[in-house]
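For consistency, the fold was encoded as tokens, as this record shows:
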Amino acid sequence: MNNNYSNNGYLYTINQAIRTVRGFHGGLVRSSLNREESMSRLAQALSQADGILIGAGAGLSTSAGFTYSGERFERYFADFAQCYGFSDMYSGGFYPYPSKEEFWAYWSRYIYINRYLNPPKPVYEKLLELVKDKDYFVITTNVDHCFQKVGFAKDRLFYTQGDYGLFQSTDPANQKTYDNREWVEKALIAQGFVRNEKGELELPKEGKLAMRIPSELIPVCPDDGHEFTLNLRSDDSFVEDEGWQRASRNYGEYLTSHQDKKMLYLELGVGMNTPVIIKYPFWAMTYENPQATYGCINYSEASCPSQIAQQAILISDDIGAVLSQLRKQMKDGKSE
């Protein structure tokens, strides 16, 4: 191989992956190994790899307890659910609220619990323990910042789709992003949230929350006067700021320097919503490198093209459970 990913790792891998995957025939296959065989092979691949490229999707955060329905939704959004009839956070994010004050009240809660609070389960911590002494890099479509919060090195992270913790202006000429934590906390306090002894904002023990924020709290860009929106990729207005560009270059440089090495491409919880960002590139890079291993842990979608089946380790199970077993197995020395 002689690929140069360095200038724009994001676009280069997408274009390369599309070209490669178009040539695959024969459909997708699942593992022919039992769980113990798969775990043994994965532990060995982790131990022996020259580099580990982690590709993380929504399934990883779901395993860590960042669910968008059920108890978390009912706890923080019961008033919105009763008023408007939706039953999960995702649906609430698209609801056509009658006012900007209600829209931003909803989103301030959404941002806080999914970006500034830690997930209920230590799945990201388990992953870090497995790779912290390895030559790793992370590319993720998640926007909840969990990797950096638990201690993954910032210069080894690439958040391709944005960050709940950043605003961008609705003026397309403004290509900056803005930290939103101070605004989020003000918006929550205005709705009735209170600080606990840890300094975290939580629901009041008595009294109802307001479902709107004061009009003067509607977030506006201080540089151009336009209203803010979230820095999330939904169309071509997404701002790829200086930090995003730097992360893309870091990703490209990592790929260029590791393309002929013994690699583990470890895909965690990546679905088929945006396969061109992680899944297809991982398949393509595995196919082009005979020394590479493709590892996929996904509760319901652990599969790969038949062309790389001999290089693949496919485990259909909860990511947190697999990481716990893997950590124990490697500590016991069974990966040698």
